[in-house]
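Milestone 3.1: sequence recovery, worked example.
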């Protein structure tokens, strides 16, 4: 049934591979279950936006499950979806204060209404094909920069929550000089373990290449993607 539904053999994959990939993807993006309600409720910043923490947690899990199931069973595409980072901060620090400044007593509800309207407009843009044109007009370097920026932003939040980075009045953030917390100790132990593993793997690959020169990639055509183009001849 699973083979017929997802065409695993046609896509050169197996049930075991897909299960491991799914678990890895879940563990990679599970941070949003805790970060999203902490941001929208304002608890991460020591403020109260009026939004219930538990309600946001439930909505985050349900929306992620529904969107991912839609991608799996309708689009047949191995992409997991969840509320993204960035928009939640824009909601708390821009949309919500703007609604409150406009005189609405229920600012967070008005801001959520604006988000719903923007979602409908985005759906219309997708249906008429304009969204794809806008997406393709963005340069690859900008797309890579956005992905890297979001990754660094998430890493910054993790380091801040672990106590490795603390607030500083002069520079907004600084490295914590006291690494006595359990979170910091575990963090550095994991990083040291990962670094040692990467060095061991690199050394094993290098020694294997030296002992087996027949495995070196040899290509007679310099236009191969594995080989750099030849240097131009020197002129005197």
């Amino acid at each position: 049934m699973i083979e017929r539904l997802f065409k695993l053999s046609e896509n050169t994959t197996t049930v075991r591979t897909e299960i491991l990939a799914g678990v890895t993807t879940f563990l990679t993006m599970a941070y949003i279950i805790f970060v999203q309600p902490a941001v929208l409720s304002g608890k991460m910043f020591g403020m109260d936006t009026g939004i219930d923490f538990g309600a946001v947690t439930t909505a985050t899990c349900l929306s992620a499950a529904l969107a991912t199931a839609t991608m799996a069973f309708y689009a047949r595409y191995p992409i997991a979806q969840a509320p993204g980072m960035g928009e939640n901060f824009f909601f708390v620090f821009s949309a919500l204060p703007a609604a409150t400044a406009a005189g609405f007593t229920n600012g967070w509800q008005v801001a959520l209404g604006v988000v719903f309207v923007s979602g409908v407009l985005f759906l219309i843009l997708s249906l008429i094909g304009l969204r794809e044109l806008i997406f393709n007009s963005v340069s690859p370097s900008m797309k890579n920069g956005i992905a890297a920026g979001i990754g660094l932003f998430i890493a910054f939040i993790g380091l801040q929550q672990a106590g490795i980075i603390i607030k500083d009045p002069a520079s907004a953030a600084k490295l914590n000089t006291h690494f006595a917390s359990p979170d910091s100790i575990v963090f550095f132990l994991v990083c040291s373990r990962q670094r040692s593993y990467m060095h061991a793997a690199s050394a094993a690959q290098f020694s294997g290449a030296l002992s087996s020169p027949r495995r070196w990639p040899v290509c007679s055509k310099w236009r191969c993607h594995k080989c750099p183009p030849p240097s131009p001849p020197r002129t005197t």
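The chain is about 60% helix and 5% strand. Residues 206-226 have pLDDT under 50 and may be disordered.
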